[in-house]
Amino acid sequence: MAEPAKPRIGIVVDTMEGNGAERVALTLITHLLQRGYQVDLLLCRMSGALLPLIPDAVRLFTVNTKVDLLLFRIMDIALRLMPCSVRIARWTARDLMVKLSALRPVLARRPVYHCGPCWSGRLIAYIRVAVMLRWPWKQYAHVTFQMARATLSIAHYMDKEQPRVILAMLPKSKISTLLARRFSKIRTRVVLAIHNTMANRRESHRLLAKVLFHEADAITTVSHDLADDFSSATDIPRERVATIWNPVDVAALQSLAVQEPDHPWLKASPREVVLATGRLIKRKDFPTLLRAFARLETFPNLRLVILGEGPERSALKNLAAELGIGERVDFPGWVPNPYALMSRCKLFVLSSVGEGFPMSLIEAAACGCRIVSTDCPTGPREILENGKYGALVSVGDDVAMAEAMVNSIKQDPDGDALRRHVECVSVENVGAAYEKILLESV
Q1: pLDDT category, 99, cuts 50, 70, 90?
Q2: Does pTM surpass 0.85?
Q3: String of DSSP letters for 334-362
């Protein structure tokens, strides 16, 4: 007698940029596929460097169509003409088109389904969205038309595909998924994965979270401190919030770590590079890292490599030049295999003012790196066990960071202890925890 097919699981993310939450989604998708589950991935926008890495066995859905955008813009104009209407949409050109050069290899390799509603009844659905955005809660005025478009599409996906559970992993996708269930004809289980503190979100997101997040069937956070912060910010009881660390495929990571690094500084002089990774944004506080690195006068041969892309690139380059270290700092952008660099660098540094669960610290530990991190909320202290597996310094203190970097460079790292420390976040252990919380009602 054949075994019954395992339930279908939908995973909703905003985009597939090369950030921590998106990489966690890919790791979790791979684990669920290996366990025999049917997995659908819903993207609010078809963009991101990780698009080519989506497994072929996953059905890929998108709400990113020009027709939907045009119709929502018409709805926007109609709502603006209504008396006492509230401006709730911001039209941006980048949401109309995505770079075809990035999409072409993805579309050529696999089918991409549109999960928007069919034409029959679409106008009625748009009118329902218009009413919902204005009544009875003022908070719905903070819903953008991109989020409203995603709401209708996810609701249609729920009705048509009837997944047993949907996991929403990024801010906009959480709001759209919870709103979508109000429109859906069936009661789909919804699980939210919280990856960052509420303080790092816009005010509109925090207001919507207080209104909507209590409707989720289950909520997970990536650290205990983050669970406390989330419960306090949303008034959701702490016992309703579970903690599951992000998964890391340690075996695959270590196999990538032995590959040749694609950077001339590490090929020419391994162990003479300080490494940092992350989006080039203010929250990562790379200026503090640059000022701390400029203080390392006793190590004139040391170089600094910062991996990642973001809007602060030019400002950071200018600051490095002002500090006189422009020739010793490199910004190579996003690289597909940062682990080859981690395994050969002298030191890994995290300088953020706030995190949810910095995966880079886990990955650096798995590569046997010396680690220096700011003691920011939330994650570093929990991951490094109060400084046992890496130095912790105050946020924004470049003097303390420079001193910790010097002390760490002079010490020999216990690579084996670091690798054993991260075994608890193996894909098998974390994947099993996600399976339980996703399907506990089945």
Answers
A1: very low
A2: no
A3: --S-THHHHTT-SEEEE--S--S--HHHH
